UniProtKB/TrEMBL annotation:
Residues in MOFRL domain copies: 311-419
Protein name, UniProt field: Hydroxypyruvate reductase
EC number(s) per entry: 1.1.1.81
Signal peptide positions (record): none
Alphabetized UniProt keyword annotations: Oxidoreductase, Pyruvate
A Pfam family annotated for this UniProt entry: DUF4147
One GO cellular component term: cytoplasm
Organism in which the protein naturally occurs: Nitrobacter winogradskyi (strain ATCC 25391 / DSM 10237 / CIP 104748 / NCIMB 11846 / Nb-255)
Domain MOFRL-associated: 8-234
One GO MF term: glycerate kinase activity
Length: 428
């Protein structure tokens, strides 16, 4: 492993550690209520967050176990042992029947919360898929169809979740409405650009300013063809999300406990300590993965030509408009596009990965987190006569990097603060 590869992996690991529930959650947990603590969690960090809650309240505080109950819905392969909070593994990014069961059970627990209870809601990336509760008249199969079409359309997550909120009985503030008698505290690990609360897990406990009309307009914008049941649901005023001023939020508090910006700052610190000048492009980048890669390749080649030792850092969430039949995710497609543009540029290495440990893929815990590029990638391209543009045309980045041996395989990290992209240029 080259020194730059070691540094890239160290930067990735540090950004993940800075957002892990084991280290960040306990300091934000609220005092005990007079009644029960009902914990509802959703997302890729849900089980890890639930376990951290149990350690705090049961072990550190000494809460009677009978006063703690709840449910955590997480992606397959992301479970950890818990004592009082039940864990359900469910589909992601496409929801499934397990996600339906988890959402229904969560709504039931929320509805049973009294004025003396604390409803503790723990959210992380993936929660929108793990809690699937279609509105009346829309089957889970139809919700799956809409989700798949949106994911392939190139739409940013904010637009995807606007549609999701208006086809759900739990998103868009409806979980808060179900538990309106209780005190509600939501603690969230942000995985979205600009840390917008309505977008994190589709905002189940916060007011939603978007409307049914917005959702309909987005389906038109991305040319998503829906069946009559979905169209009727988006025309039905009963499916409007909860708005600011709704009584459901009178005892509700929302707090972000980890965000992409903080983790990107950790990456910048490590790069500087390694002697690199840092070009920080921000934690909120969006856009088509291959287009952003073209811009970053230009920056890297200019830095190389100028003899600079530069780290180009960015977060955010890129998208892929799927036209081919291959496998991959936005980070792998970004890396593949860079491989095509950098070719034999010595002194340049790249890591692009999702901090949750899975970049696109088939929804398996073993999916790659992303990919790494350096001079060994270019040697493999020549040795195996790999054409990155051909793989790019088929959206088949996973196959390309499997052939070069450059897939980043981390397994579930049990947190998620969005994507991390690091381009190291060492032309000194």
């Amino acid at each position: 492993m080259t020194d730059q590869r070691k540094l890239l992996r160290a930067i990735f690991d540090a950004t993940v550690a800075a957002a892990h529930p084991d280290t960040i959650l306990a300091a934000h947990l609220p005092p005990l209520p007079h009644g029960r603590v009902i914990c509802l969690a959703a997302g890729k960090a849900a089980a890890a967050m639930a376990a951290a809650v149990e350690r705090h309240y049961l072990d550190a505080v000494g809460l009677d176990p009978v006063r703690l109950a709840g449910l955590a819905a997480t992606r397959y392969g992301h479970s950890v042992p818990t004592r009082r909070i039940r864990v359900i593994e469910a589909g992601h990014p496409v929801p499934d029947e397990a996600g339906l069961r988890s959402a229904d059970a969560s709504l039931t627990l929320a509805s049973a919360a009294t004025a003396d209870d604390l409803l503790l809601v723990l959210l992380s990336g993936g929660g929108s898929a793990n809690w699937i509760a279609p509105v009346n008249g829309v089957s889970i199969a139809r919700k799956q169809q809409v989700t798949k079409a949106l994911l392939r359309s190139g739409a940013p997550i904010s637009d995807i979740n606007t549609v999701r909120r208006h086809l759900s009985r739990i998103k868009g503030g409806r979980l808060a409405r179900a538990a309106s008698r209780a005190e509600i505290v939501t603690l969230a690990i942000s995985d979205v650009p600009r840390d917008e609360p309505t977008v994190i897990a589709s905002g189940p406990t916060v007011p939603d300013p978007t409307t049914l009309a917005d959702a309909r307009a987005l389906l038109t914008k991305y040319r998503i063809v829906c069946d009559d049941a979905v169209s009727r649901a988006l025309d039905d005023p009963a499916n409007e999300s909860c708005k600011p001023g709704d009584a459901a939020f009178s005892r509700a508090r929302f707090e972000i406990i980890a965000r992409p910006r903080t983790s990107l700052d950790v990456a910048a610190r490590l790069a500087r300590e390694a002697g690199f000048e840092v070009l920080d492009l921000g934690a909120n980048l969006e856009g088509e993965a291959r287009d952003v890669a073209a811009e970053h390749a230009k920056l890297a080649l200019e830095a190389r030509a100028g003899g600079r030792k530069l780290a180009i850092l960015s977060g955010g969430e890129l998208t892929v408009t799927v036209r081919g039949n291959g496998r991959g995710g936005p980070n792998q497609e970004y890396a593949l596009s860079l491989a095509a543009r950098l070719k034999d540029a010595s002194g340049v290495s790249v890591l692009a990965a999702d901090t949750d440990g899975a970049d696109g893929g088939a929804g398996d815990a073993s999916d790659p987190a992303g990919a790494v590029i350096d001079t060994s990638t270019f040697r493999a391209m020549r040795a195996f006569q790999l054409d990155p543009l051909a793989y790019l045309a088929d959206n088949d980045a996973t196959a390309f990097f499997a052939a070069t041996g450059d897939l980043l395989l981390t397994g579930p990290t049990l947190t998620n603060v969005n994507d991390l992209r690091v381009v190291l240029v060492d032309a000194t």
